[in-house]
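Summary for the steering committee. One of the milestones for this cycle was to obtain a three-dimensional model of the protein with iron/sulfur cluster bound, which we needed before selecting residues for the alanine scan. The sequence and ligand used are listed below.
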Amino acid sequence: MTLTAPVNKIIPFSNVDGPSNRTAIFFQGCPFNCLFCHNPETINMCVNCGVCVRNCPVQALSFDESKKVVWDKQKCVQCDTCIKVCPHTSSPKITWMSVPDVMKEIHRTLPYIAGITTSGGECTQQNEFLIELFTEVQKLGKTCLIDSNGSFDFEADPRVLKVCDGVMLDMKAYPEEWHRHLIGHDREIVLKNLHYLLEHGKLYEVRTIIFPGRDEENEAAVRYVSEVIRDRCFYKIIRYRPFGVREKYLPELGEFTTDEAYALKYVELAKSLGAEKAYII
Amino acid sequence: MSEALNIIKDETLTYNQELIALARLGESTDDTIVYSDEYYAAKAKGALCDLNEGRMPYRPRYICPDYELLFQKGCEFLELEPPKDLLEAVNVLEIFYRHVPSITTFPVYLGSLDTLLEPFVIKEDRAYAKKVLGLFLKQIDKTLTDSFVHANIGPEDSVTGRLLLELTEEMQLAIPNITLKYDPVKTSDDFAMACVKCMLRTAKPSFANHRMFVSEWGERYAIASCYNGLNIGGGGFTLPRMRLYECSLDAKSIDDFFENELPKYIDLQLEYMDKRVKFIVEESTFFKHNFLATEGFVKQENFTGMFGVVGLAECCNNLLGIKDNKKGFGLNEEATSLGIRIMDAIEKRVAEHEAPYCDAYGHRYRLHAQVGIDTDGMDDAPGTRIPIGAEPTILEQLEVNEKFHKYFPTGTGDIFKFEETYLKTPEAILPIIKGSLANGLRYFSGYLENNDVVRVTGYLVKKSEIEKLNKRQQSLNNVTVFGKGAQDGGHALDRRVQKQDDINRSCK
Ligand code: SF4
Ligand code: SF4
């Protein structure tokens, strides 16, 4: 059987998923459940309950013979009703693609890009797929980066890192309780990956989100990461933004984007702790 | 009221614009050049357009003087000596520009400013050179008040090139238009990046495919007016255009279009060009008496006629009965292939035509993808572009352009929008430019789009989210807490409106 993976979206040109111009591939499905997730519809796999099929205003969704929901990209008007009504934080708008399918898209963008970045959801859930894909892309002289939440044990399956040029790792929170609350998962595996990737020269960048008014939590994360990475990789300080965040979590997390001046203090803090390649976006 | 009185009483016109309009009116009283009835009928239908060139051409439309020659031997007619230092050099240029005619009355080509001025600039202290160049640019902006005034830089890096970029950013002047002649070997990444950064802040320079232009024109080519490739020491006699959408309206079928309508209009436009070119060379005094010609700053044999087209997209969509541009040319294989077939046919027929004069080009005219004028409305997209509103991705836009740019040695181009995050990641733009030029794109213009929603990292922005956000953003703009942010946003917006003047490069 051909290996396939659920692709939520391919962005041909991205300037925000790693250095230079890259093709970014977003996979469906994520083992974490971050409260602030900007794309909660990428978290779970569709269970074919059919709620969205009944609600689509243009009949772009239907069941196939095996009772699976299929999406007609041509008919779809991108109203996102399906995403809103889905009771399972999922999306019917995914395409199961094989490695050759994805390569076909990459061949179009190849003249203009430095490489590709796989993201999600959580792309490392598709580790077998990534290994095949990266092997093909590297043959073409382009780089392959992984954007990961750190849930995948890179040490346990070293094949992935062999064909991957670097990982951009989210270190979204540090204090144990806060991590469990915010991410819905323990922090251990993320911390382990942080060290492992750094030691193996595969940590391209770490990202931490700065929440409005969360002085203690913000500082703990920035301190920890900075002291570990020093100047050995980039450190992207991201301002929390409310875009796409589920309504029910907005009161707790904030309705507004973190103030730039406030977030800049943490860039300064990171730099003062030796993380010289800290920057804000 | 007479037409002259209308012009004189029009409060929207500056003195200079009145002068030009009155001159054109005077021209139109003569009917020495007579065209065929078929030509006039085609013009009345809107299938052919003369871009208001006037009935009596008394100079070529575009003139690209040889400024190197000016610096070598000076100019007798203007009593100018070859310059010995930077001050003299810019002074000589400023005086000379004033005497270079064109369709707009302003010079459409200012020269390769970096190579011209570099020998003088490097002899001066950098700060002093910058001051002089700043005043030079200001002089141009305030006296050559037309955005088709065009300067070239590159392909090599230079102190002068860098200073011009710095000044362009600092002074935020609308004029002149600037093009970098980009060559993958001769242009360093560092210099190209400096140009990209400048482009994000000022919508210039644009990037010209140096290798492509050199292969067609030789090393001595100019980028003039909006994006026109022409010979240095030469220029363009005339530029009429076929409005392809209108040309397709009477076609009974696609075959009929190729067999009857298209050749008919091509021949009529060629008739128009032949008559004008002959008149300019044989009747008007320009090549006989104007000092530019008599002193050798331009040579008649280096001029060619520019055969313009617009509205290829709408033409294809009409012929295929496609109503929705989003499903048409550029986004639909069948329509795009038809476009290629049409361009092949135009190219072939124009190449078969023996043009008067145009000696340097084997007596042939050269194609031009005309950029459109304000009165075109929505019927004809510029040249071979995908119509506005069809919103292709940059990738699709590039792929389509790369198929069509090869047809147009006398110029074509497209404008690419980049969202605000690119200010922080300009290095992501250079591979796009390099890749596209290597793939056959002729001319790349970019600008920064002021977009409220930007994708920050690793997540997707949904269309519905953008709409929601736009609504929220609007209401927030009135909240005092966000006063500063909103104000900043507002200014940014003002600036962009200004900028749109120079990116909206309609050829007048
Ligand atoms: S986004 Fe597309 S598939 Fe989903 S409800 Fe709207 S039209 Fe239907
Ligand atoms: S996308 Fe959601 S609503 Fe639609 S069938 Fe799947 S689980 Fe049900």
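Key point for the committee: The radius of gyration of chain B is 23 Å.
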